[in-house]
Every structure is written in structure tokens, then in C-alpha cells.
Amino acid sequence: MSSVKIKRIESNMVKCISDILANEANDSLLKTITITGAEVSSDLSYAKIYFTSLLKMSTQELEKELNEASGYIRTELAQVIDLRHTPKLEFIYDNSIAYGNKIESILKEIHETTNSND
Q1: The domain spanning residue 73 has which CATH number?
Q2: Do residues 44 and 74 lie in contact, with contact meaning Cβ atoms separated by under 8 Å?
């Protein structure tokens, strides 16, 4: 399958899953999740869904909760996305935002240190 079509499917999945979590889910924990990306296998049988949350729960606990709800999310996704078979979903915590914030704070600290030395 062409990479353009897979990228379009990934983008559509991010949008649809975000909508499902925000509007369809009854669990308040699911409503706090932000979907940041998706990677779909070339045969469309499997999808890694990346997410983040502002909750002060461990990333393992958040992943566990979302992966337990993946059956429900997959069922809802099948109703709104136009694919012959809806991929199996695996939710993975996206560390890139926390990593970016850490780098930003380090750069800010370096900048403040160099300015105070002048």
C-alpha cells in the first residue's frame, strides 16, 4: 500500500480516536487523553497510537487503562473510519512532549547562567 495512503489513514485515525475519546467515552480518564500520533502497519492489521495526558498517573497505568479500553475504541473507530478491517490498537505513551520540555528547561537554565555571568 502506498505510503501516502497510510499517512492519510494514520492522520484520520488520530482525528477519529481523539473525537471518540472526547465525545463518546464515558470514562473521565479517557476524556483527559490527547492523541499525538499513529503508526499503522503496511497491511493495516496493527496500529500504534501515541498519546499524552496531563494526569499525574504513571505512564504504565495510563497505557494499561487505554489498552483495556482499546476494544471499545476499536469498535467505535470501525463505525466512523472507512476500512475493510479496523487495525488492532496498541496505545503507547508519547514521551516526546516531556522530553521537549526537559530540553527547553535545560536551554533556559543555560541561557540564564550565561546572562548572569555577563
Answers
A1: 3.30.300.20
A2: no
